[in-house]
Amino acid sequence: MGGLGNQMFQYATGLSVAEHLGVPLLLDRTFLDSRPQGMNWTARAFELDVFRLPAVFATARQVERLRRELESRWCRRVQRLLPWLFTPTCFVEKDTGFDPAIFQRKAPIYLEGFWQNEKYFAAIAAALRQSLFVPKDAPSEKNAALLDRIGSTRSASMHVRRGDYVTNTEAGRYHGVCSLEYYTSSAALLAEQCGVDHFFVFSDDPQWVRDNIQLPWPIIYVDQNNGRDAHWDLYLMKHCQHNIIANSSFSWWGAWLNPSPGKTVIAPARWFRGVAAPTTDIIPSTWIAR
User: Fold this and answer.
1) Domain ranges within the chain, ordered by starting residue
2) Is the peptide bond before 108 cis (omega within 30 degrees of 0)?
3) What is the pTM of this model?
4) Across the strands, what pairs with 198?
5) Is there a smaller number of Cβ atoms within 10 Å at the N or the C end of the chain?
6) Distance between the two ends of the chain, CA-based, in angstroms?
7) Which residues contact residue 157 at a Cβ distance below 8 angstroms, ignoring those fewer than 6 apart?
8) What residues have CB less than 8 Å from 178, skipping those under 6 apart?
9) DSSP string, 66-131
10) 228: which DSSP letter?
11) Where are the extended beta strands (E) located within the chain?
């Protein structure tokens, strides 16, 4: 479900659980491929094939068999009334907090959720950073030149998520967008405390950031990676020394993939506008929530 960032969370958690159980990981792309009438969410495609990771898909029969209990009112009733007699094969995410029970289940297990918590895949963090979430192809000439520029400065990435947070009423109501003050004050903090002297701004709305985000330090607006090339923004973000992220799983990964032990990552404390209290369990403890 969801775009590239959400698919990365789901893959990482699925692989971590599969390796813990010693079984293969199969991916269900049914939701991504469906386009039902009246859908009120942003249509997405499978995007993980831009990375050097194995992707094996479950058959329609396997999906139907494992999801049957989710669709069956009788199965759900038995689980509630006689939990000791019925071990469900489906493990559905309850909230954004880490649920260690996921590693106490036996195979086969069907996972449904977003799993936006690094504790789910802490055991395979090195592999995700070094070999799995790595682009298949070499960077373009423009991206290679920008990578050199990033490496030659005290750099910070800034990711501004707009897109369907602005254009889709439901998405906007639930997610919301970060304020200009959040970005400018976060940039000032990194300049003062970390000596950042160049900011690299990434966004799905490049004209808006050019018109609205100006800083008293050198700033480069990165706008060459669109559509199937969007993962190159992740690649460039992770090579910046520090990161300012949006309430977006995409920019979360740009910062998390950054291997630098000395990095400072600034993230919005309120991840979901549609949640009454600040949602900080998505944000790693070493990051700064503002």
Assistant:
1) 4-126, 137-289
2) yes
3) 0.89
4) 155
5) C
6) 28
7) 199, 200, 201, 202, 236, 237, 240, 242, 243, 244, 251, 254, 255
8) 160, 161, 246, 247, 268
9) HHHHHH-HHHHHHHHH-GGG---SEEE--SSS--GGGGG--SS-EEES----GGGGGGGHHHIIII
10) G
11) 90-92, 110-112, 155-160, 198-203, 219-222, 242-244, 265-267, 288-289
Architecture label for domain 137-289: 3-Layer(aba) Sandwich (3.40)
The pair of structure tokens assigned to 79 is: 């689980």
Q: Is 5 exposed, middle or buried (0-12, 13-18, 19+ CB in 10 A)?
A: buried
- Give the HSE-up count for residue 89: Cα atoms under 13 Å, Cβ half-sphere: 15
If residue 238 lies in a helix (H) or strand (E), which one and from where to where? helix 231-239
Q: Categorize the per-residue pLDDT at 69 as very low, low, confident or very high, splitting at 50, 70 and 90.
A: low
* Cβ(175)–Cβ(247) below 8 Å: yes
Cα–Cα distance measured from residue 121 to residue 128, given in angstroms and rounded to the nearest whole number: 9
- Locus of tokens 């309850």: 94
Closest CA to 233 of 251, 213, 212: 251
Would the pLDDT of 174 be above 50?
Answer: no
Residue 130 one-letter amino acid: Q
Compute φ and ψ for 92, nearest 5 degrees: -105, 130
